[in-house]
Amino acid sequence: MSESRAGSTRQDIYRSITDRIVLAIQRGALEFEMPWHQGVVGRGRPVNACTDIAYRGVNVVALWVAAELEHFDSRYWATYKQWHRVGAQVRAGERGSLIVFYKEETRAAYDDDTGEVSSESYLVARASFVFNADQVDGWLPPEDPTKDHVEPHKAAEALVATAGADIRHGGDVACYVPTEDLIRMPDRTRFTGTPTCSATEAYYAVLLHELAHWTGHRSRLNRDFANRFGDHAYAMEELVAELGAAFLCADLRVSPTPRPDHAAYIASWLDVLKQDKKAFFTAASRAAAAAEFLLKLQDMAALQSGSSETEISPV
């Protein structure tokens, strides 16, 4: 494949996935319900049925969107060949859902100063199609140890505690204050439940959102969108916090709630995603990094305490 054609193919992957996410955001805009709210509840983070490894970054949201559009209930996905490998068969007529993976390739690099030729590695985006477990015959999902006895609140509290963030309760506003490096949260009694989310889950979903913001401080992940996204920088940071919280909620089995106060960002998100086909990939990547940062802090705390167990494991 020529370099120009390969570049065109990569652009098609970015655009195809971004366009589906844009449509999902537009459908949920009136209810302030984003595809990551719909995906987390009942499904959790998408997992490869063959490798038992959870999907990362933009693929998490892409598969949540696909599951919502096609009314799939399972969180398990795999390629056609992978399903065959585990003894299952994709049913005739079923269509795969697009994801992206990155393949490492090498090319010759010429040094103008020395005249030496060496090889350098780079990552190339490649498209792949996966099928949901609801589209195959001959496979049963593994037993989920959390299905009958779930303690998401305990797990969320453990994650928050090991982060060590300065969290101050009081007032009626939830926010992260970068200049003071602290999180402000309303008292727990200010949170109310919904038919799909308890008051406690609502509290932790908001706290995880603010904790995702907290990871972006210059002393941690040093996240800054000003140069690339200009006036949309703050909206992009909100998108990262939204996705980061959604990823953590999926792992902790906490149901995230739509945030009506984010209505002001929806238009900005749509503008950016339509203008920049890689913007959502960037946001999802930064969100994955934020979630993994917090999970690694928990793992380090467990090692330091001599514990062999953690509430959840990084994915």
Topology:
Layout: H1 3-28, H2 35-40, E1 47-48, H3 58-70, E2 76-78, H4 80-85, E3 89-90, E4 97-110, E5 117-132, E6 136-137, H5 152-163, E7 167-169, E8 175-177, E9 182-185, H6 199-214, H7 226-229, H8 233-252, H9 263-275, H10 279-304
Parallel strand pairs: 1-2, 7-9
Antiparallel strand pairs: 2-5, 3-6, 4-5, 8-9
Helix pairs in contact: 1-3, 1-9, 5-6, 5-10, 6-8, 8-9, 8-10
The largest sheet is: 4 strands, mixed
Q: Tell me the β content.
A: 15-25%
> What number of structural domains do the residues give?
2
**Overall pLDDT level:** 79
First-last Cα distance:
33 Å
Instruction: Give the total of beta strands.
Output: 9
